[in-house]
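Entry type: protein chain
Record version: 2
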Amino acid sequence: MSAVRARFPDAPEPWIDLSTGINPVSYPVPAPSAEAWARLPERAEEEALIAAAARRYGVSHPATIVAAPGTQALIQMLPRVLPPSRVAIIGPTYEEHEICWRRQGHEVSTVTDPDQAKEAEVVVVVNPDNPTGRLLAADELPSPSKLLVVDEAFIDLLAPASSLAGSLPPRTIVLRSFGKTYGLAGLRLGFAIAGRELAERLRGELGPWAVSGPALEIGRAALDDDAWLSATAERLTADRQRLDDVLLEAGCAIKGGTPLFCLAEHSEAPVMVERLGHHGIHVRSFRQQPTWLRFGLPGSDAAFERLRTSFND
């Protein structure tokens, strides 16, 4: 945000950052115990977090779950543990996947259709996609010879059957984000669900105490809180519809999204970015799709109203 603030120095404060797909109303964090700060995490505490994640994600065997300091760490790690491969990324999607595979010397191509990935040894799918919200069913996903990577960062609020986590196909790894749905991106917590051999290798690469003591405690409490997640899903569904209404009123077309963000299209998208920036509102634009804008959810009635009026000034 510092670069955006510098670009619009006269914008009103506080800024409203709608450039992410993070729940703007975060989980009410319980205060971590003093011991969580003062000592290294114990194995039992990590096992308790893994058990909570297994229940939340419908995974039968906790040994197949790896806890990490955010899914970004796993995205960076996977290209290091596989030999040089032909990698197909189904896009357009989260750019870090392509960046990380290329950095490690893999042969990477971006394709728009799963059928175009048939010759790849590794296939990466963000499901539902960021930013389009496209959701591929299990029978639409490729079966590459080495590994299928399914990034389910935005799947928490969809039907459980949408996820592969509970019925993992062979040669598949599923990535699950914690911070987006729970609004705690700064906690740095994420999970991989993989076959036992790959899961063990990832644990070895992460090393001991990869997840902090406070993250273990807070993550376990949040993942076990069924009532909060149910109420949050209801609120986010209503807020997403409210956001769509604001964008339609502003002349945008709705192209897709998830309960945590909306992908909109406008012929004058760059002009809208400038207008919103001058009003202290940051949204995501796309260099290769210049008519696209991605809007996260405003976190309050005041933020919704500020967005609505900014379009008209």
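Comment: The mean pLDDT is 96.
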